Amino acid sequence: PGVLGNEASAATDSFEDGLLEHPHYTRPPQFRGMEVPVELVEGDHVAVARWRRKMSLLRTMQRRPDLLAAAELTATNRELLAEIADESVDE
């Protein structure tokens, strides 16, 4: 108790929900030819949360599929995984 400045931080911490964390970006929005995803720049908090969850699922699927298999997925998570699968077929 009292270690974290914001107790809610633990709920969104990496690996709290059994998945790997989404990528993190900082400023400037473009660096050495790499760009921050548009979802993060536009400022729509719902879109940012959705993007973060989707990237968390993708990163876990790519790096630790065993964690994904053991995770209790919500309907939204399953929907995002279906989007990821559709996008990989399109590529």
Structural overview:
With 91 residues, this protein is mainly alpha-helical. It has one domain: Trp Operon Repressor, Chain A, CATH 1.10.1270.20. The chain has four helices and two strands, in the order ββαααα. Strands 1-2 form a two-stranded antiparallel sheet. A hairpin with a 2-residue loop joins strand 1 (30-31) and strand 2. It is globular and about 35 Å long. The model has no long low-confidence stretch (mean pLDDT 87).
Short structural summary:
With 91 residues, the chain is mainly alpha-helical.
Order of helices and strands: EEHHHH
Coarse shape: globular
Give the count of helical stretches.
4
Total strand segments: 2
Helix content: 40-55%
Low-confidence stretches: none
CATH topology descriptor: Trp Operon Repressor, Chain A
CATH architecture: Orthogonal Bundle
